[in-house]
## 1
Amino acid sequence: MKTFDPHVSPNERSVDNGRRAFFVKLGAGATALASAAVTAAPRGAEDPAEKLARLEEERALRKLHETFERLLDSGAYDEVVDLFADDAEVVFNNGVFASRSGIARLYRERFREGKTGRRIEPAPGFADELERQQERVEISADRMSAGAVFPYSIQVGAPIETETSLAGMARLHGEGVQTWWEGGVYRVSYRKDADGRWKIARLEYDTLARADYRPGRTYAEAIAVAPISTTYPHDPHGPDALVRRA
């Protein structure tokens, strides 16, 4: 029986002296948080009705992911939270945001304040790496759980924390947010709720690249972004835990 775990990052990522210095190796620590692997249905001879049912489930999951991306892109963060199971978790930049309260803190507060989630084209010079990432969706034999991998290319931001007068003026005008481009893959686990609706059970942002880039530019520079290091409540927008490293 084939086993599929959407959270296992590739064992090795190429790193050279140029723009690939930004590659992130999450290592075994991030994957240790992953839920049990999703077991795919046996291949080979498959009843036509069963095959059709599985195709319908796959379409439903792809539609759910499209909804997730559309809501993020439009800044509808409240509605994003509703797509998750009550006990779900999201792994973002070394932080684990657990249950509805933690996920609400991530999207309604951290993402909203940083203007994060809007889809943008890959930064110049970085597109080839994302194009090599393949989408896939696999559904368990009982069609009650599933796993998927989807590439992403988004804007991420964080409020400028310096206390200079210019930063203060920017904040007064609704600005004062440092933004950058980020690309990678979503590693997602799904399960059905009591009413038979698909919900996101776990989502991990597996970041492959970050760059100083704004749409319309013809160049981009790789950047490093410090991982989240402070948990809630010390950081009001922080995660419930940090990713455990081996």
## 2
Amino acid sequence: MGTNADLWSGIDVRIPRWSIGLVPIALAMLSASEAFAHGVSDDDKSFIQGNPGISIGPYIYLGAKHMVTGYDHLLFLFGVIFFLYRLKDVGKYVTLFAVGHSTTLLLGVLANIHASAYLVDAIIGLSVVYKALDNLGGLRKILGFVPNQKMAVLVFGFFHGFGLATKIQEMSISPDGLLANLVSFNVGVEIGQFLALSLILIVMTLWRRTPAFQRQVVVANAGLMCAGFVLIGYQLSGFFIRQAT
């Protein structure tokens, strides 16, 4: 399932004026947030650096907190499930994202693979733009075909996981209990993802039952795309400023 260009046939895409105002509000909220969607708070940094041993419970909490507050993850997943109506399909796509996210988080930290956090997060922003454009049927118009949706979710999941790995690498973490803590963190991420997606699905289900849903499909994905472009611009600006200093 996923996005389907055929869903657009017969849809009234008139955009209510009040909903257009949601776009700048969403952008303002994003720009007011910390520059890194994968940012780690000072308190969390202090905890991580001050507890070198195995801390399964706290790391599960940190993982869940990261997912629930990680708006880049949530924006991407919102786009992924936008046209998924069966829980079976939601489960497939979310599982692919989780596999990608977990793989590069573990591999990036354990294998000490480095990359610019700004550029990785810019690609994460691109994933949001990609999914919104896909939902709007733009990929078929631009490319002449729709890329494999499951593969795209998996690949972008790799980048989402590597984004956090770049942040963890910036901290002095003791190797003592590192693997167990990272696995615990991933478990927390999955718990947070389940909680966040449950709420999103409840809201989406109620929204889909309203007559306004079909009219607001365009503005919702346009807002999603704008948010992705804000993330890209924010990260690229940080990258070039860092290069210039």
